[in-house]
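Protein modeling request. Please complete all fields; requests missing the sequence field cannot be processed.
Requester role: graduate student
Desired output: 3D structure, token encoding
Chains: 1
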Amino acid sequence: MAAHQTQDTPGVWHHAHMDAALPPLIQNLLEAHRYAHPVPRVELVQTHISWVLLAGEFAYKIKKPLRLPFLDFSTLAQRKAACFDELRLNRRFAPDLYLDVVAIYNTAQQPRFDGPGEVIEYAVKMRRFDEAGRLDRVCARGDLRPTHLSDLAGRLAAFHATAARATPASRFGSASAILAAALENFDELMPAALAPDLSARLLALRSWTQTQHQGLAALMQARKTAGWVRECHGDLHLANLVLIKDQVQMFDCLEFNEDLRWIDVSSDIAFTYVDLLAPQHSGLANWFVNEALSHSGDYEAAALLRFYAVYRALVRAKVAAIRLHQAPGNASDVLAYVTLAERLAVPSPARLVITHGLSGCGKTSITNEWLQNDPHASSLRLRSDVERKRLAGLGSTASSGSPLGGGIYSAAAQQQTYARLHTLAGLLLRAGWSVIVDATFLRRSERDSFRALANELGLAFEILAPQASAAQLRQRIQARSALGRDASEATLDVLEQQMQTLEPLGADEQAIAKPSC
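Delivered output (517 residues):
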């Protein structure tokens, strides 16, 4: 199991031994014979709001009888309801981990997981997993791979696609509610005198937040009306993701506060993005955001991602400050997250990059490297092969069955695809992201259109033009087709057609072209 580490649950997990300060029920549940299944020993793990008993192959999560500003577990009925909420919500994406809500009977001195006797408490019963697989630990070991994040992005996009949507009349996800949640971070951080200049830095970030919100409020409301505010995970940091059989599993969502769970999907994405940035894995952070948006096609979310990323970084700073208040120590974590928020608020200058070359020349490989090597984690990629199929209502790896020069590869479809790429590139560039467009760009007119866009926005423009021999092109296309796992449907016939229609780079284009990244 892993802990909540959100703005609302500042407790960090720790292992505890028999402690006189523990309530009698928890002390007695540390005895292995209380369980009907084999239990060599029982370990206790605590958060600010829960006790978790690790007993054999299962874990039992019990809510603490607390009343706090963000939750109320003060009665047995409320704790029972919270347990069932946790079970229901987490079964949306982790049914194999979340097994049941079980009653605890009898007395605190002689607790039993079956009757007879009075029900004295409830627990969420979970299947245990190896905590070494938690993504925060995998990342810390240097074992987190782009493929893991591609898997997560696909699962997250699929989850968001089926998650319940807030109605326009609901209170959830309104622009005013989003601003209130963001400003709350500053209200709670300001009293923490952790550095001489911290107050001034927080005031500057507060002003940035208000200014950004003013410019984004209309989009926030429009996205709510369009159904992008959904019942999300709400707590999607790395410690609430686990690698099981080399696949990333989400768990431990935010069950106790609806306002923090019913959010724009981009806020869910932003938490994982920030958590990857914090340990300075910028390339992985950049890759994750690209994969998440590519899977969903929700590129409009990019306009909100920076706002939510700053918000999430300050959530982390607030949690670190609360933890510091509970157990005095080093303030470095608080200051590091404030610094991260500052860095996110002032992105690096955007630029527009396009590719040029025949199918199989290495455009996608070179743009993969480009994304994963971005030290600012502020670059997004658009792939013609993916967007072409999205326009046709197809998945990225689905076969269109199009004949040579027909179907989704007709002249009209080609024009529509490049128009879509142009529109999306403009949207992302205006939102402050650098953009790389992965397409053949065989015609000069297509390249000129994107160069004009960069000039219009006053941004740098570059061309990546990887090279390969005719034999290499043919070999790569055949190998890719045999695997059937790529969005490209290029065949040898397509390659021959491209060779006949390619318009080489002009002298002015060659001056800004690069053979690699």
